[in-house]
Amino acid sequence: MGMIGYAKARKEIARAFRLPAATVGMLAILAISAESADDLKLPASFRNWYHVNTMVIDKGSPLFEAMGGMHNVYINSTGETALKKGEPYPDKTVLLIDLHEFTISDGSYLEGPRKATAIMLKDKKKYASTGGWGFQAWAGGDPTKPLVTDPTKQCFECHQARKDQDYVYSTYIP
Amino acid sequence: MGMIGYAKARKEIARAFRLPAATVGMLAILAISAESADDLKLPASFRNWYHVNTMVIDKGSPLFEAMGGMHNVYINSTGETALKKGEPYPDKTVLLIDLHEFTISDGSYLEGPRKATAIMLKDKKKYASTGGWGFQAWAGGDPTKPLVTDPTKQCFECHQARKDQDYVYSTYIP
Predict the structure, then answer these.
(1) Chain B residue numbers touching A114 (CB-CB < 8 A)
(2) ipTM (interface predicted TM)
(3) Which of B151, B34, B106, B59 is CA-nearest to residue A104?
């Protein structure tokens, strides 16, 4: 992805993940109505899902402001086999990022409290315009605080770069 | 822990986790006989266990040489409730560190291949001299390459500092 596309994507991701109270409040109001009839809900049991991998976005990253933190990635059982085989994901697959703060202590990066939770839900038909994936994120992992109002701009424009992996950045690490 | 104790612990941990081929080979030969009648075995299914948290030990850490990498911590179902309640762990609890290499790309820390796998197995009676925990680690997560020959020096001397948490460093992050 070129730097211009990257900077643009960054701005949009910032709208999805950063958490200044006023902005989040506005987005929440805008999003609740859009989301009410939707199936993009925060899964209750994700902490017991399969842990795919972890990534840390540190201060040195151009993505830090937008989505800095420790990204613990989980997948529901529907998608586990496809993940391991590197195949396209079946409908009802959910990939979830549990984004946490971190502190650095003497060179160790330690996981802190939850900052946000984001999901991708596969439904080839329903979300055909965004690669077959529906996107949503919640401030602080709070189901009453959805953050995504424009999934194309806030999510898919960046995920598009991973079309070869069914639009998923994470890969299986045995 | 004072710096002298820390430096000492670091040397011992280095013996548990670092992987120069010759050393590992020696340790493996020494350890296989000690371990053969033991219950400290590499669990087959740990990648499906509950993900407790993740920690990254970076170059800036005095522990980097000994155990640098991305530490994904898992717990078996026996210990899950105690973890969440912050209570002492029941016998047969296993805590496991799946230690991976990482690469840094533009400020993002990305998980790489497995470097080692380490466990703590609770058996209050059997491992009374080391806080009720048995310790073992395997180079590259290979069950034929155990690394711990002296659990007191290589493991317990450092875990002793967490007596208030039943000798476990990790805590529950909801």
Answers:
(1) 173-174
(2) 0.83
(3) B59
